[in-house]
Amino acid sequence: MPSQNRNTARIVIAKTALDGHWRGPQLVSHALERAGYEVALVGMKQAGEIIAAATDQQADLIGLHIGGHVEVAEGIIRDIRAALPDMPVFVGGVVPPWAKKRLEALGVEVYPPGSQMNDIINAAARLTGFAPAG
Q1: Is 1 inside a domain boundary?
Q2: Domain presence at residue 73
Q3: Which residues touch 121 (CB under 8 Å, ≥6 apart)?
């Protein structure tokens, strides 16, 4: 839930793999900002760095671009769950159908290529409790 002291939710977006694909995370970040969220696109990070960024930013949601590296993402998600058990997480990027089920079993929402931006924004609203603008 957003902090009592602010009227918006904060979202940390990170890449979990050095795959060179930045368009997706940038587009999602910009769309979330336009919807009224505070977004920190922190770049390529390991689990500890993502957790630190979420803590430093007082994030209400973490978004991960997994770049097809499912096992890496699973490890990062497990580490986030251990450190920040109540932190909602969603993932996007190249996610094969078999991987979508595995990731969802970890309690995250998954947005593979072709997902609609409105669905991602609506998920952010649901997961943070913050209704976007407009």
Answers
A1: no
A2: yes
A3: 31, 32, 35, 132
Q: Which residues of the chain have pLDDT under 70?
A: 1-5, 17-22, 132-134
Using DSSP's 3-state secondary structure scheme, residue 46 falls into: coil
Query: Bridge partners of 56?
Result: none
Dihedral (CA of 116, 122, 128, 132) sign = positive
How many C-beta atoms surround the C-beta of residue 56 within 10 A?
Answer: 11
From 127, 86, 93, select the one nearest 15 (Cα to Cα). Answer: 93
Burial of 97 (0-12, 13-18, 19+ CB in 10 A): exposed
CA-to-CA separations, 62 to 46, 98, 134, in angstroms, rounded: 13, 22, 22
Q: How many domains does the chain have?
A: 1
